[in-house]
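Response to reviewer comment R2.3. The reviewers asked that we include at least one raw input/output pair. We reproduce the pair for peptidylprolyl isomerase here without editing.
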Amino acid sequence: MKSLDCLNATAINVLQKSNLLKSLVIAELRKEVLSKVEIDEQLKQSTVNKFLNSNGLDSEEKLNKFLEQNFMKKEEVENFALSSLRLKEYCNINFSKKVESRFLEKKNHLDIVVYSLIRLNNDPFKANEIYLRLKSKEAEFGDLATLYSEGPEKKTRGIVGPLPVDNAHPNLIPMLINGKEGEIQPPVEIAGMHLVLRVESYDAAKLDDFMREKMALELFDEWIDEKAIDLSNQLRDEARESLIEGQAL
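Raw output as returned:
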């Protein structure tokens, strides 16, 4: 990459040892990739003007003073102002077709659940008694959780979450996904514990415009990260060989 040609073997070696090489490569890769994204001229100008005005650079004099103080060129400021717009456009062009499969793959992590839980260690009879008391509305879930639960939810009156569904135990996930909100579920045994559960709320993620952008950006970040790893390893190996050759002379 041309922007990294200024780095000699010693500099690359220092960056690698300080765990800074990959971060630098990622930043330069992003700039290089996004700089090639074409933006409609009218949209480009309005975006740059909005950025300049919002940062108090609404006159040529103020802009020139800012550039001088920060050792920057006008093109660099414009590229910064357009970075979000270019990123969105690049993701839309290159990753939009992969968004739906990505969403389905991660849906359990995106769905958010809140549930009430009482867990008892190896006591199925007590668990069933608690279930029947809750089912008949003889007692409140929070009261029984505080009295009997043997997990950290004892301190929160049984409430767990909000959290991503896949943070729960794998055997608990189907109960959270399929359980009706507000319904006490019969006791189950999971990992030696007997659980009584009630789903309080379940917010299923939707593939709306916001989520599409989020998924596309994740795909972009992963793609950049993979390229950065390859390039960082290449630079590291070349620098190592150069230093070894220099020592041999």
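The chain has a mean pLDDT of 92. The chain has two domains: 2-103+209-248, 112-203. Further pairs are available on request from the corresponding author.
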